[in-house]
Specification:
The protein is α+β, with helices and mostly antiparallel strands. Among the domains are: about 10-70; about 115-165, Chitinase A, domain 3, CATH 3.10.50.40. It has three helices and four strands; from the N terminus they run H-E-E-H-E-E-H. It has helices at about 10-40, 95-110, 160-165; strands at about 50-55, 65-70, 125-135, 140-150. The strands form two sheets. The protein has a two-stranded antiparallel ribbon. The N and C termini lie far apart (about 95 Å).
Length: about 170
């Protein structure tokens, strides 16, 4: 093979080139292992990532690493039994008048309107689609205008007298 040579790499060169990184990785693995063992032995479950702080700031190679770990532990949750819980079923009784009124409101809200023949005048019960601008003393007020608003004549959803003005109008 051309360009391939066999030889030895001096240990000092390897240590210089990779030593710090390998030392850091080894320290991290040791700390992570000790932390995992602590949680396994204590049964604690941290609520968030524990805060780790090296306490021997004057550490040098060959010394033990001292790490202070602080965390908030999740509380113990006792096992729940439902044997002692009693439920009371509440039943609301609706009288016939309330049921009829609710059904009437649903039916009114679910009406289908079809287009009438061109030139037909509007009457109570018809739905008209209108654009409007409400004014007080000639000034438009906030929330008092709309475009393509569906209004059922006779629903009394606008100010008194407004809907009556639209009875008998033709489209456009």
């Amino acid at each position: 093979m051309k360009g391939f040579r066999k030889g030895k790499v001096p240990m000092a060169l390897l240590k210089k080139q990779f030593g710090e990184r390998l030392m850091g990785e080894a320290m991290q693995e040791s700390v992570d292992g000790a932390m995992a063992k602590h949680f396994e032995d204590s049964g604690d479950r941290p609520a968030a990532e524990p805060k780790m702080e090296m306490t021997n700031k004057d550490w040098k190679e060959g010394d033990d690493v001292e790490v202070d770990m602080s965390y908030e532990a999740l509380p113990d949750i006792p096992e729940v039994t439902f044997d002692d819980i009693k439920l009371e079923r509440l039943v609301a009784k609706a009288d016939d008048k309330a049921v009829d009124e609710a059904l009437k409101n649903l039916a009114e809200g679910a009406q289908n309107f079809t287009d009438r023949k061109k030139g037909t005048k509007s009457k109570d019960g018809d739905q008209v689609v209108i654009d409007f601008v409400g004014r007080v003393d000639g000034e438009a007020f906030e929330g008092g205008s709309a475009e393509d608003y569906p209004l059922v004549l006779g629903s009394n959803s606008f100010i008194p007298g407004f809907e009556e003005q639209l009875v008998g109008v033709k489209a456009d």
